[in-house]
Amino acid sequence: MMTYLQTKRISLIAAALVAAVSASATDPAVLEARLAPGDRGYGDQFGYSVSVSGNFAVSGSPLHDSAGFNHGAAYIYEMVGGAWTESVKLVAPDAAVFDNFGWSTAIDGNVLAVGSKGDDDVFGNSGSVYVYVFDGASWNFAQKISAPDKHSSQEFGSSVAVSGDMLVVGAHRSHGAAYAAGAAYVFRQSGGVWSAEAKLLASDGAAFDDFGYSVDTDGDSVIVGARLSDTVSSNDGSAYIFEDLGAGWVETALLSSGSGSNLENFGQAVSISGSSAAVGAPGRNASKGGVFVYSRSGGVWGLEDTFEDASTARLGSSVSMTGSLLAVGESNASLTATQMGAVHLYTASGSSWAYSERIEPDPAVAYGWMGWSAATDGTRVIAGALRQDVFKGAAYVFLAAQDAPDPLELLDELKDFTADAVNHKGIRNALTAKLNAAFAALEDEDEALAIEKLNDYINQVNALRGKKFTTSAADAMIAGAQEILALLDS
Length: 490
Prior knowledge:
By secondary structure, this protein is α+β, with helices and mostly antiparallel strands. Helix content is 20%, strand content 39%.
């Protein structure tokens, strides 16, 4: 007789097997929800910033007015029972007019950071970031953070990124390399307290470069965009990668489009994941836009791919990269409605990135600008449409198409599943032997033999159904094998 824990584990493995095989690389991304809080007001610009991590999605509404004119708000949604539900509306504990709380948002696991670039923390528009932590039941305010060298009009919080115990905050008007050239600040969390670690500056910074307009981080790497820098011509833009090599933060790459066209705004959006980075240049080619993807090899960052198209309109308004998925916003895309917006998905394929699909708002709303903001956690994509409904704004959550699963990995899961379900040693060994034979056949690229062994497995399970293991266990084992067969036949 199986224990409760064995039965529980079997049911979980069975669900995982079916869910994994059901995902197909040919399936399009699925719209899960259009988010629009009931207390939106005209001009709130809900969706100005967005972020997603697991079962939580966040959207900033920096011009929301419920606690004062343009004080701002951020809304957290949670996936509950297969549906996205508004969990909590956040307002800064010291909210004041023109704070723009929600201008930037970033979530990773149980940590959420919300930028409030207009907060008058000691000085006018010096800016702040508010950190919230999920305790398993609710989101709780944890800490208010400001720049160690705060000054007026710094706009600390104009961008934020969080990864594990590291928080990066952009202040695109901070003094540093030059007057109002911009800066990015690194904070570390220890014992529940976030402390300043470094102030990052561009090696070639100049006044009003907008360094810090965009930031992202992963591991010990940070990327910072400076969309108004003049690398070759006016406001063509640049981006910088910094890495903690053990003795402090070092600028390891200065990126630019190399074309030197005016107003490209290269660096308006940036993202980094592992050894890959992406930079958006929505002003490129007379605002058709473009995206540049870089990879690191031997400690050196080099250009890997460039994506641009004559038919796009501000491609690269937003970029977000996690693992093998890259989401790129095209805020001004005119498809079934003028400037409705769109998001383009790309997936890693070997040493390059391949175009996957275009996702669009449903319903299509003219001048909605979906894709002004976009974020992905590698599984889901959230896109902000800040201009929908007379600038009230909205956000869309999509489940991205997943790569087809590896039959060998699924066979390993099925072997574990069988070991838990069958107590009789001889029968367990016989069934496992069939799965091992199927595994070996697939390694030898002999699908016909693998299919034969899987069918043998199914026949033996059917013959012993209700005798040596429960009927429900037999059903689950057969379902797992049949799903692998379906994958091999596809």
